[in-house]
Predict the 3D structure of the following.
Amino acid sequence: SQTIHQWPATLVQPVGSPLSLECTVEGTSNPNLYWYRQAAGRGLQLLFYSVGIGQISSEVPQNLSASRPQDRQFILSSKKLLLSDSGFYLCAWSPGSPLHFGNGTRLTVT
Amino acid sequence: RKEVEQDPGPFNVPEGATVAFNCTYSNSASQSFFWYRQDCRKEPKLLMSVYSSGNEDGRFTAQLNRASQYISLLIRDSKLSDSATYLCVAYRGNQFYFGTGTSLTVIP
């Protein structure tokens, strides 16, 4: 069966520090991969999605970037975090439909 | 205009009640539809897909009206464990469009 791993579960980082969140999927090949963010009390915001290695689509201009160095690995990065980057970051995968989420990373920027 | 719109609620209902959530989508080219459930501080989890003919899973019934671009979720005999936020989702072109969610609290 397919599983998705996302880490870390929680993270506290100072403003201006870098960020790297990693997500891997097991048990499938060539999945579509997604990064979402959910601010406190808000809906899900799509940040990036990828349909293949090296193929990244960005939905919202911001100081975040994403990379897909391997078929089942998706990385979310930032060079310098802002206070507004705080939120619940969710990685998800899809074989086309529907969408399956990882457990999420709760990021607090202080 | 948002791709998917939902009444945010909150809905506070007694145990055993029937509750219905509604959702509309703006793009007629949307291909598939889903309901997700999100518990507080957790990731959303797939509750059920929504088919044109309507579908049922135990106490949950989902309906899709493509002509009106409208999706619904009916929960019968509400349980305390049904308390959560319910997210309506439309899928089109490798992208999933989420509503902001409807909050449900089932009261003893």
